[in-house]
Amino acid sequence: MDPTTPTGLWEQVLAFDTAAPIEQARTLPASWYISDAFDALERRAVFLDTWQLACRAEQVAEPGSFVSGRSFGLPWVVVRGGDGVLRAFANTCRHKATEICTGSGVLSHFTCPYHGWTYRLDGSLRTAPRMAGIEALDRATMALPPLGVEIWGPLVLIHRDPEAPPSGPGIGELTRALEATGWDRLQWHSRRTYEVACNWKAYCDNYLDGGYHVAHMHPDLAAQLDLGRYRTEVFDTYSLQTCPPADEASAPEGRTPAGRTEGGALYVWRYPNLMLNRYGPCLDTNLVHPISADRCRVTFDFWFDASHLHDEAWIRASLESTEQTQREDMEISERVQAGMASGTWHSGPYAPRVELGIHHFHLLLARALRRATEPIDGTSAPGEPTP
Ligand SMILES: [Fe+2]
Fold first, then answer.
1. d(CA 216, ligand 1 centre) in Å
2. Bigger pLDDT: 385 or 365?
3. Domains held by the chain: number
4. What is the DSSP string of 253-281?
5. How remote is the CA of residue 265 from the centroid of ligand 1, in Å?
6. 313 and 292, same structural domain?
7. C-alpha 241 to ligand 1 mean position (Å)
8. From the CA of 322, how far away is ligand 1's center (Å)?
9. How many angstroms is it from 362 CA to the middle of ligand 1?
10. How close is the Cα of 237 to the center of ligand 1, in Å?
C-alpha cells in the first residue's frame, strides 16, 4: 500500500476499522503518523474543513482592529469594521496574491505594501493605482475573499468556507459548561510556543488518553488530582475529561502553586486540534498545528482570573507548573513518534475503559479522511453506512 498514490492512500485510510467497538479496535496505523501523503490529506480534509482558533475576541473589539496570521497554508486576517461587524478574509491581494497585512493593529483601511492597492475593512477594493488602460477590471470581483468567522467565549475562530455551518449549535453543552466556569471573565496573560518532534496526532493522543499517563508521567499533577475519579465523556465533535482535586495536594513545595487545580481539572478537546485546560482561576488554550508529518507546533495561551493577575509570584509558579507538564508531554510524544517511525510497530489496542477520548478522535478523523478519499465511483467503505 503506497500512500503516495490515490489508491494506496484510500487503502491506508481504510486500514483503520471505524466499525470495530473499542474493545476490539486497533489504533490508527503507524503510517498515518509518518506519511507526507497523510499530512497533505489532513491539511485539506481536516484543518481547512474545520473551525480553527485565530485570535482573542478582545484583540478585535474596537472598530478597525485586526489580527492576521497563517494557518495550514491560508493567510488570514480578522478585522472589526467601522460598522461594528467582525469579518475575516483571505489575506491575499487580488493583484499579486501578496499578504496585505501582518501582525495586528488598528487601521482605517488595508494597503497592500507591494503596489499600494487599498481595501476597505469590509474587504471591498478601494483603490488600485496605475491600473488605467486595463480592460474589464470588475471591482465587484476584486474584494478580499471572505472566510467564516465566529466568536466563542473569549476566542475567535475562522473557517476557510464562509458558508460553513456555525459550530455553536453542535457544542452548546460545552459552551454552557465553560460559561459556568466564568471563562469569559478571564484575562489573557501570555503565550508560549513549542516545536515538538512528533506528528500532531501523537500529541493529541497523549492529551486524550483519559488520564492513563498522568500517574506515570506527571507526578506533580497526579498529586493534586483524584485520578481514581477521572472521567471521559465524548460528544459529536468534542470530548471532556474531568478530574476532581485530591483531598490533600502533596506536590513538592515551590513546584505546584496552591489553587491551580482548585475545584479539579476540566480538559476540553475540540476536533481536531484545540484543547482547553480549565483549572480553578486558570485557562490554558492549546492549539496543535502540524509542521510536517513528524513535527508539530503547540501554542499555549495562558489566561487567569483577574483576581490573581496582581500576584506575580503565583503566576510565575503557575506557569512553571504547566511548563513542567508540557515538557513531560513533549518528551513522551517524541518517544512515541520514534517508535512509530521505527517500522517495528503497526498499531496497538485501546484501553477500553480509559482511552475513550483517543478512540473518539480517531473515529472522527478517519471518517473525515474516508469522505475525502472515497473513490468517485461511490464505492462504500467497509463498515460505513451506504447513503
Ligand atoms: Fe500529559
1. 9
2. 365
3. 2
4. TTTS-TTTTTT-EEEEEETTTEEEEEETT
5. 13
6. yes
7. 12
8. 10
9. 18
10. 21
Mean pLDDT of 325-329: 96
- The Cα–Cα gap between 365 and 147 comes to 23
Task: Give the Å distance between the CA of 320 and the centre of ligand 1.
Answer: 15
The CA 209 to ligand 1 mean position distance, Å, reads 9
Report the distance separating Cα 368 and Cα 338, nearest Å. Answer: 26
Listed in sequence order, the residues at least 6 apart from 219 whose beta carbon sits closer than 8 Å to its beta carbon are none
* Amino acid in position 43: R
Question: What's the pLDDT band for 137 if we cut at 50, 70, 90?
Answer: confident
The residue segments making up the domain with residue 197 are 1-49+169-387
What is the distance in A from the centroid of ligand 1 to the CA of 218? 7
**Cell numbers representing residue 357 in the block:** 477520548
Would the pLDDT of 251 be above 50? Answer: no
CB atoms within 5 A of ion ligand 1 belong to 329
In angstroms, rounded to a whole number, what is the distance separating the alpha carbons of residues 93 and 142? 9
Residue 342 has pLDDT above 90, yes or no: yes
Q: Once rounded to an integer, what is the mean pLDDT over residues 68-80?
A: 97
Q: Is the dihedral of CA 21, 25, 29, 30 positive or negative?
A: positive
Distances 88 to 103, 154, 185, 306 between C-alpha atoms, Å: 14, 17, 25, 29
- Quote the ligand 1 centre to 87 CA distance (angstroms): 36
Distance between Cα 213 and ligand 1 center (Å): 6
Task: Name the residue type at position 206.
Answer: N
Span 275-302, pLDDT tens digits = 999 988 999 999 999 999 999 999 999 9
Q: How far is Cα 31 from Cα 41, in angstroms, rounded to an integer?
A: 13
User: Do the Cβ atoms of 32 and 201 come closer than 8 Å?
Assistant: yes
Instruction: Classify strands 231-234 and 186-196 as parallel, antiparallel or unpaired.
Output: unpaired
Domain with 41 in it: what CATH number?
Answer: 3.90.380.10
Residue in the block written with cell 472589526:
80
Question: How close is the Cα of 334 to the center of ligand 1, in Å?
Answer: 13
Which residue matches cell numbers 465511483? 377
CATH code: domain of residue 93: 2.102.10.10
Cα of 276 from ligand 1 centre, angstroms: 13
- Domain edge (last residue) among 166, 189, 206: 166
